[in-house]
Amino acid sequence: MQRTDFQFELPPELIAQYPSKHRTASRLLNLDGNSGALMDRQFSDFLDLLKPNDLLVFNNTKVIPARLLGEKETGGKIEVLVERVLDDKRVLAHIRSSKSPGTGRILLLESELRVEVLGRHNALFELRFDIESDVIEALEQYGRLPLPPYIEREVDKRDLERYQTVYAKQVGAVAAPTAGLHFDNELMQRIRDSGVDMTEVTLHVGAGTFQPVRVEDIRTHQMHSERIEVSETVCEKVRQTREKGGRVIAIGTTSVRALESASRSGEIEAYSGETDIFIYPGYQFRSVDAMVTNFHLSESTLLMLVSAFAGRDHIMSAYQHAIKQRYRFFSYGDAMFITRKTA
């Protein structure tokens, strides 16, 4: 398939620049992956879509304030976006500047942090922080929240709460698992009270999630690698759900990628490590039956993933419906509830 098979035109005013007033106040487009049938709902109706034996799988990663501004020794301005924490002093990061800094160069970030460039690994730079504390503490003190590039404004106080899920625990993401942003504590409690089971995986979302597909033949695209954790507890809950005839419902494409990465052998197995799984039409899903997801960028790998899940034609029709109905798109936008195409 070609990259342009996943292209659509989006009016810029439909890109959500701010979160809704309340987490559950967003809209929810329900897509049946088999028939292509659509239903316009509110996210507050989410519980109505669940069945007693369903299992919800959330991604509990926590976004770190990974963006740092500063200057090189020469005085040139520089922007650092941490992609991954390697240990208590070292990170891999993207660097934006007029000229890339060489190995051994010193950067001064946020007027306080001295950072040495240790080397370069393709598009990423290995950096060492000259600090007594560890990197996570330094980022928490000096870093800025890394809002996606299509949100064209500065971070404000509202983002510090709303660009984080209410169940975030495991520190390490530089972008939020945005389908989870629609859940508040009240809705989570209502789900528990309903008897629907819930569990958590971890996938630390990297900045690569915003990288465009540059090749025409999507089969030759190389995905970025991300760290995941799928425990035996999760695997056993998936198996039990299958035995009871329930559905495994992934909250977000990151949960889909984590579950399907752990199922590459054909059966789900506990896994801790890296994944670069690329899901596009033709992929056979092994663990996920339904999903909650936001609307994704044109020609993106995430649009290809949901097209594999519900069929490209159904997804593209749903997106045209969403545009016509003035849904809000991307990280702070509205959501979809999609059931998998099984026919």
From TrEMBL:
GO terms for cellular component: cytoplasm. Keywords: Cytoplasm, Queuosine biosynthesis, S-adenosyl-L-methionine, Transferase. It comes from the Bacteria. The keyword Cytoplasm applies. Its EC number is 2.4.99.17. One of its GO terms (biological process) is tRNA queuosine(34) biosynthetic process. SUPFAM superfamilies: QueA-like (SSF111337). One of its GO terms (molecular function) is S-adenosylmethionine:tRNA ribosyltransferase-isomerase activity. Pathway: tRNA modification; tRNA-queuosine biosynthesis. It is an enzyme of class 2 (transferase). It is found in: Cytoplasm. It catalyses: 7-aminomethyl-7-carbaguanosine(34) in tRNA + S-adenosyl-L-methionine = epoxyqueuosine(34) in tRNA + adenine + L-methionine + 2 H(+). Belongs to the QueA family. PANTHER family: S-ADENOSYLMETHIONINE:TRNA RIBOSYLTRANSFERASE-ISOMERASE. This is S-adenosylmethionine:tRNA ribosyltransferase-isomerase. It comes from Methylophaga nitratireducenticrescens. The gene is queA.
